[in-house]
Design goal:
The complex is a heterodimer of chains A (about 290) and B (about 180).
Chain A lengths: L1 H12 L5 E8 L2 E7 L8 E2 L17 H4 L4 E5 L1 H12 L8 E6 L38 E3 L13 H10 L2 H13 L6 H5 L24 H14 L9 H5 L6 H16 L27
Helix pairs in contact in A: 4-9, 5-7, 7-9
Chain B lengths: L8 E6 L3 H10 L8 E6 L7 H9 L4 E6 L10 H19 L6 E5 L5 H18 L3 H4 L14 H9 L1 H4 L10
Parallel strand pairs in B: 1-2, 1-3, 3-4
Helix pairs in contact in B: 1-4
The chains are: A alpha/beta (about 290), B alpha/beta (about 180).
């Protein structure tokens, strides 16, 4: 923690960056903070409550953040993958941001806590299980000690996908339509996503109106399927969409399913290396086509 | 339900291969099912998965997506891009439980009028078997799925007992 604060103070004092974006402690867990004065650097923390993906502040849709000038951003491995996604798609230039990487041992789902909770099977964020990037590579500074691998959650994302795939198509249809029925079309999933970068979302277009705007289940299905597909091969699995969803739709199941598909079909895993091209927009002559007659 | 169900099928086809192939099927006077409405697009690369979703919303019971064979694309690579996009769409629709019979993907070249006939006849037969897609259109009625037993708790129970009940999904609804 001290090295994080010292580094932030130094970056602000010598004018390398205008703002350091990280987390601070509050009565209701950790929350994002923009530090723009060296004396405020001591507010910065990193612990198991730092669940938020701060890379969303680099999304070009957030003009108010762009206007702040050069940023330093504290990133976990998953956040670094999202930054790499923005770089890969030319939504960000590398010199606009100083990346302060932190080694991560998983974050907790219940972050409504004034002190950092222990990582356990009950508390762990399901997406942290099996994380392949607990030490981010795409960084200018790497802080913290190596932490032990997070434990398996009570119910992993893979197990839930397996349970759905073991069910009949009719059961899956009923499951997903019941989930989509809950959607209120607040688009929080889109707003919080670091990689939903379109200036004008297809869901907001009215002529023609591709996605029905009324929040009935049919329009909700169209929106949720489209959102998942637009992130296929890009989603870093940070799970912020599901965490922000006020209706509790299990969006990570859709995202993870598509991650599995691109891994199986195109041997692609999302990494924090911006030089590796994403699978959509690329192709191979011998791509699988068993589903085509 | 005395009348036989006649499927409505929307076909999204590329201008250069499948549309010309379908034209050939017509000028060759091949007999085929007349349930298909063709929408011609410049290339399979122009076909967004949202087109398919929109077709279902507007009353299609099935959809055909067809274009040039790999290496034959008029624009060099449009069908390769489409192939990846539709692989993802195909797998995602299966995951949310849309019957695979409802969406047919095919490559039909300009000279394959007979193949187009077969693709159409097969798609119509498949959709006829699975029936009208009213389940999709009726999603507009909120009451259909306000409450459903296969919620997360049941899913959690299913996951916990997955090894025991796998391969016997028909009787696994005791929860």
């Amino acid at each position: 923690m001290k090295e994080l604060r010292d580094l932030a103070r130094q970056l602000l004092t010598d004018g390398t960056v205008e703002v350091v974006v990280g987390w601070q402690s509050s009565a209701r867990g950790a929350r994002p903070i923009f530090v723009d004065k060296p004396e405020e650097a001591d507010l910065l923390i990193f612990d198991t409550r730092c669940v938020h993906n701060l890379a969303t502040y680099l999304n070009p849709r957030r003009k108010q953040v762009t206007d702040l000038g050069k940023l330093a951003l504290v990133v976990k491995g998953c956040d670094a993958k999202a930054v790499a996604g923005l770089l890969r798609e030319a939504q960000l230039t590398r010199d606009r941001v100083v990346l302060i990487g932190v080694r991560c041992g998983g974050v907790v789902e219940e972050f409504d806590a004034p002190v950092p909770p222990e990582i356990s099977a009950e508390t762990i964020m399901p997406r942290c299980y099996g994380c392949d990037n607990r030490e981010p590579h795409l960084v200018d500074h790497l802080l913290g000690d190596a932490l032990p691998e997070p434990p398996a959650p009570l119910l992993s994302i893979e197990k839930r996908i397996e349970a759905l795939e073991a069910a009949t198509p009719e059961q899956r249809w009923e499951y997903w339509t019941a989930q989509f029925a809950k959607c209120v079309r607040c688009y929080a999933c889109r707003q919080v996503c670091p990689l939903c970068v379109c200036e004008r979302c297809v869901a907001d277009k009215s002529q023609p109106q591709w996605i029905e705007t009324a929040s009935h289940t049919r329009g909700n299905l169209s929106w949720n399927v489209t959102r998942a597909l637009h992130l296929a091969g890009r989603c870093v699995g940070c799970g912020e969409c599901e965490r922000f969803c006020p209706a509790g739709i299990p969006l990570t199941l859709l995202n993870r399913k598509l991650q599995q598909v691109v891994e199986e079909r195109y041997e692609y895993r999302v990494s924090d290396d911006p030089e590796v091209a994403a699978p959509i927009g690329e192709f191979r002559l011998d791509d699988q086509q068993e589903f085509i007659k | 339900m005395s009348e036989e169900f006649e499927p409505r099928i929307t076909a999204f086809v590329c201008n250069w291969c499948t549309y010309t192939g379908a034209d050939l099927a017509g000028t060759s006077r091949l007999h085929m099912a007349s349930n298909v409405r063709i929408i011609r697009l410049p290339c399979t690369g122009r076909i967004d998965p949202l087109f398919v979703i929109k077709a279902f919303e507007r009353g299609a019971d099935g959809v055909i997506v067809s274009g040039c064979h790999p290496a034959d694309c008029h624009y060099t690579a449009g069908n390769y891009h489409a192939r990846r996009r539709f692989a993802l769409f195909h797998d995602l629709m299966a995951f949310i439980g849309v019957d695979a019979e409802r969406i047919t993907f095919s490559w039909v070249s300009a000279s394959e009028g007979a193949k187009w006939r077969d693709v159409v006849n097969e798609a119509v037969a498949n959709v006829r078997r699975v029936g009208p897609f009213t389940a999709y259109r009726e999603l507009i009625d909120q009451s259909v799925s306000a409450d459903h037993p296969l919620d997360d708790e049941v899913l959690a129970a299913a996951a916990a007992s997955a090894p025991a009940t796998s391969g016997d999904s028909k009787t696994g609804d005791g929860a």
